[in-house]
Design a protein that fits this description.
Structural class: mainly beta
Radius of gyration: 19 Å
Distance between the termini: 43 Å
Number of helices: 1
CATH superfamily: Jelly Rolls
CATH architecture: Sandwich
CATH class: Mainly Beta
Helix content: under 10%
Oligomer: single chain
Mean pLDDT: 95
């Protein structure tokens, strides 16, 4: 079994350099790590810089920050994002060999790019904040300790020809997400950011725990229970990417039986009895 160190890839604390930084490669995992069956990279475009391609793999470009003009399939749009935490995502999703062009505005732009092998054809689509509704999971459960904002960008229902499922989570300070711990047969990748430079959280990978900071990436093996928690005071963001398996697409997850009781609103868990008035 790979160690938790193999599952965690540290990112640059000061941010990514201009150009493309490759983090994972489909079919070429780091030594001792599982194959996530996805390419994942960060593309940092400087002001006025253009990136044009017609990649051989299905690709999804998620805007992390900045502003850019995006051209694809005869369409053009200006996309912008000032905050991962307060603004829903914008994502361009295209099938293999689709010509696209991205031109950064004066302040530059940064994208997370996920790719995978897929021979199927489908219509390119730009997902905008107006297309996506937040889902506040965990409300009313275990004293709201796992309340979080889940932003599903696309899945098997909305993009059935895709080999990917893509979304974001905004993990509130001091609270949990991906909770109760759960697992699924398909490989998954998490990429993290925090509201402050010193922010951090912890990622559970089965019985192992790794400390995550801004720009870190965690690879989650198929079948492994996982959950996340952010340190108090720090909002935690992560982009999540799942790869469908041949004949076994991702349609949901299985909760850890030991902790499934936390999904019952009637069972809020232990509450201390000796707190001062107003704190209980």
């Amino acid at each position: 079994m790979p160690s938790p160190d193999h599952a965690l890839q540290r990112g640059p604390r000061g941010g990514f350099a201009a150009g493309e930084t490759v983090i994972t490669r489909e079919g070429l995992p780091p030594a001792g790590a599982p194959d996530m069956m996805m390419d994942f990279s960060i593309v940092h475009l400087r002001g006025g810089e253009t990136r044009a391609e017609a990649h051989a793999k299905e690709s999804a470009w998620v805007l992390l920050r900045g502003e850019a003009d995006v051209t694809f399939a005869g369409s053009r749009a200006t996309v912008m994002r000032g905050s991962l935490f307060d603004e829903p995502p914008t994502a361009l999703h295209v099938c293999a060999a689709t010509p696209i062009e991205l031109r950064a505005a004066a302040a530059g732009a940064e994208f997370a790019v996920v790719r995978t092998t897929n021979d199927r054809r489908f219509t390119p689509r730009l997902f905008t904040p107006a297309d996506l509704q937040p889902e506040y999971r965990g409300a009313g459960l275990v004293q709201n300790a796992a309340l979080r904002n889940v932003r599903a960008i696309f899945d098997l229902t909305t993009r059935p020809e895709s080999n990917l499922v893509l979304g974001e989570v905004v993990n509130f300070p001091g609270r949990w997400s991906s909770y109760p711990p759960h697992h699924h047969d398909q490989p998954e990748i998490y990429f993290y950011r925090f509201t402050q430079p010193d922010g951090y959280g912890h990622a559970e990978l089965g019985d192992d725990v790794v400390k995550v900071r801004a720009n870190d990436t965690v690879s989650i093996r198929p079948g492994l229970d996982h959950a996340q928690v952010s340190a108090p005071g720090y909002g935690m963001y992560y982009l999540w990417m799942i790869r469908h398996l041949p004949g076994n697409p991702y349609t949901g997850f299985t909760f850890s039986p030991a902790h499934q009781w936390t999904l019952d609103p009637a069972q809020q868990g232990w509450r201390p009895k000796d707190l001062p008035p107003g704190l209980a």
